[in-house]
TrEMBL record:
Enzyme Commission designation: 1.1.1.26
Alphabetical UniProt keywords: Oxidoreductase
Protein name per UniProt: Glyoxylate reductase
Gene Ontology MF terms: glyoxylate reductase (NADH) activity; glyoxylate reductase (NADPH) activity; hydroxypyruvate reductase [NAD(P)H] activity; NAD binding
Length: 323
């Protein structure tokens, strides 16, 4: 009997994919750090019952239209803005993501980025390695305090709440803005719901964890940066396109805000000569929010379990909720 065909768009560890090889015909793009070319993706998807995809793979109408056998797409990410959910749903294709398993890890990185930006850790590390340290000096690489300041979290999902939890450990006042109020989180985290504008005006640290949707596209534009304190630090660990990067660059150059810590970019990988990367008060990371071995393994494993569940006619563990 013909076994279902599963295509995986990136080389994943053998022990992770072993359960799939036992049951299905599996083909895996053989490169760990290279995105599968579009023509290969289209061709493979057209014969696949299941796809395991990365957030860099565009799964759109064109692909779905010609992938008539496809039953499930398991995306190795909690975000799924790379997938046209409506087009998938219309064709009965189940889309799964990886919530929960990455919450704490991504919150750790978000807070680390906030600390690194506030305390100028990257500059300081480069400074010492370049042999520039001549003396202890009162204002050498002086940053700004984090403790007892106000953090404003935009996007109070699970990761946002986990960041708020960390902020409480630093005795911070927590403001948040979200599509909907979360009374439970407010109680548990002593967080205050406010309007987007109020958050921008009051927060010392504005932390973006919002997913990319039509509503959040370039939410952080020129007007938004103008409303922030001149001493504000902007952190983005959500999605790059939630920010108008030109407006962010201008805000940093004009000292409209003090600094930015960015784990995500509108185009990834960001070009080495991108203007934002030239600024000393920008701490930039290559989208590593969930990148610990434990968590990335858990995400990949969850994807495999979702594929097996759907191909066996069972309920997937983590289908995208809006379907
Ligand atoms: C996600 O899962 O959406 C993250 O951005 C990956 O680190």
């Amino acid at each position: 009997m013909r076994r279902p065909y599963v295509f995986i768009t990136r080389k994943l560890p053998d022990d992770i994919v072993a359960p799939l090889y036992d049951k299905y015909d599996v083909n895996m793009w053989p490169h760990e750090h290279l995105v599968v070319p579009r023509d290969v993706l289209l061709q493979e998807a057209s014969r696949a019952e299941a796809l395991i995809t990365m957030l860099s793979d565009r799964i759109d109408e064109e692909l779905l239209q010609q992938s008539v056998k496809l039953r499930v797409i398991a995306n190795v990410a909690v975000g799924y803005d790379n997938i046209d959910i409506e087009a998938a749903t219309k064709r009965g294709v189940i889309v799964c993501n990886t919530p929960d398993v990455l919450t704490e890890t991504t919150a750790d990185l978000t807070f680390a980025l906030l600390l690194a930006t506030a305390r100028r850790l990257v500059e300081a590390a480069e400074f010492i390695k370049e042999g520039k340290w001549k003396s202890w000096s009162p204002l050498l690489l002086a940053g700004t305090d984090v403790h007892h300041k106000t953090i404003g979290i935009v996007g109070m999902g699970k990761i946002g709440q986990a960041v708020a939890h960390r902020a409480k450990g630093f005795h911070m006042r927590v403001l948040y803005y979200n599509r909907s109020r979360n009374i439970e989180a407010e109680r548990a985290l002593d967080a205050t719901y406010c309007s987007f504008d109020e958050l921008l005006e009051q927060a010392d640290f504005v932390v973006c964890l919002a997913p990319l949707t039509n509503e959040t596209y370039q939410l952080f534009n020129r007007e938004a940066f103008m409303k922030m304190k001149r001493s504000a630090i902007f952190i983005n660990a959500g999605r790059g396109a939630v920010v108008d990067e030109k407006a962010l660059y201008d805000a940093l150059i004009d000292q409209q805000i003090a600094a930015a810590g960015l784990d995500v970019f509108a185009e990834e990988p960001i070009r080495e000569d991108h203007p934002l990367l030239q600024l000393p008060n920008v701490v930039a990371l290559p989208h590593i929010g969930s990148a610990t071995k434990e968590t990335r393994y858990a995400m990949m494993q969850l994807c495999c379990r979702n594929v097996i569940a759907v191909l066996e006619g069972k309920e997937p563990y983590t289908p995208v909720k809006s379907q």
